[in-house]
Write a structure and sequence with these properties.
Distance between the termini: 9 Å
Structural class: alpha/beta
Order of helices and strands: EHEHEHEHEHEHEHHHEH
Radius of gyration: 18 Å
Helix content: 40-55%
Number of strands: 8
Bound molecules: flavin-adenine dinucleotide
């Protein structure tokens, strides 16, 4: 298991209490020795300072950190400034994204798609950053077609991405198919599977609708049948997601990226099942 590449994602806390809680979460999750912690970045720079502060804190604790950077709504000058801040903070790994502007945000900025951001980062900073990009085994919700989405992914790699992290999914076949298709296009960067632990039915349905992740019917029905019985939801979710992770790793996934939602327990429980 040590040869696998496990990483953990946080979002920047919005309050001092949230920051305190995240600190405790990180300390617990550090015991699992992830390869790095990534920190999301609100589209349009809405969490820019929070992302940077969180990354600085992770680095100061002696852990590896990778800020996300979303370009939508940004200008070349604003992204250049963020890159300079990241570099000055000692960052050498970035998750590069387009992002989604909150509704009513206005102008979409100077970057249209993530491949343009990757190209810009390479042009501005050469090989300083290891760049991860997003991949969508179940197809990005705005893609014109699965083929178009695959081509969009290929462009990000051609622009200089070193690796990819997928949107979360619960259907391992979608992942294996996607990886096979990328290999047919001659793309050989590691495509790490994004894993969302299942702990809360309502939240999972809401997120999944937004990002286009499919919850298999049998999983959805079982989760719904548990009602407010949070212990049963968590126990069943742990079984389902452990099975998914095992299948992915056995099938050759080069690593797992855990969407922790700033919680230590769900990721730890999964991890312990996987490494036992
Ligand atoms: C691992 C991971 C981390 C994430 N972290 C964040 C975060 O920190 N902050 C945040 O705001 N969001 C984050 N997101 C969400 C992400 O920003 C959204 O999914 C967003 O809608 C797409 O971003 P992208 O980088 O995949 O965009 P792109 O790769 O640019 O693709 C976006 C859409 O445009 C299409 N497309 C691409 N190029 C073209 C073209 N030339 N012509 C027509 N269509 C095209 C693609 O098919 C796709 O439908 C994350 C997603 C993942 C999987």
């Amino acid at each position: 298991m040590a040869t696998h590449n496990f990483s953990i994602e946080f979002f920047p806390p919005k309050t001092p209490e949230g920051a305190e809680k995240l600190r405790a979460t990180r300390v617990k999750l550090s015991e699992l020795h992830p390869k790095y912690f990534s920190v999301t970045f609100g589209a349009g720079g809405t969490t820019q300072q929070g992302t940077l502060d969180t990354v600085r804190e992770i680095l100061a604790a002696g852990e590896q950190a990778a800020p996300h950077l979303s370009c939508v709504g940004g200008s070349r000058a604003s992204i250049r400034a963020v890159l300079a801040d990241f570099k000055a903070a000692g960052v050498n790994r970035i998750v590069a994204l387009r992002g989604d502007l909150p509704s009513g945000y206005g102008a979409s900025g100077e970057f249209r798609y993530a491949n343009e951001l990757v190209e810009f980062i390479r042009a501005e900073t050469g090989d300083h950053f290891h760049i991860e990009v997003a991949a969508y085994p179940e197809v990005h919700p705005q893609a014109r077609s699965p083929q178009d989405d695959l081509q969009a992914f290929a462009r990000k790699v051609q622009a200089g991405a070193n690796a990819a992290i997928t949107q979360y999914f619960y259907n391992a076949d979608a992942y294996f198919q996607f990886v096979e298709q990328t290999q047919k296009l001659g793309i050989n960067v590691p495509i790490v599977a994004g894993i969302m632990p299942i702990t809360n039915y309502t939240q999972l349905m809401r997120f999944s609708d937004m990002c286009g992740a499919e919850i298999p019917r049998w999983v959805r029905l079982k989760l719904a049948s548990f009602g407010d019985d949070s212990a049963s939801i968590k126990a069943f979710g742990l079984d389902v997601v452990t099975g998914l992770c095992e299948r992915l790793l056995e099938g050759g996934a080069p690593g797992l990226h855990f969407y922790s939602m700033n919680q230590a327990a769900p990721t730890t429980a999964l991890w312990q099942r996987l490494v036992k």
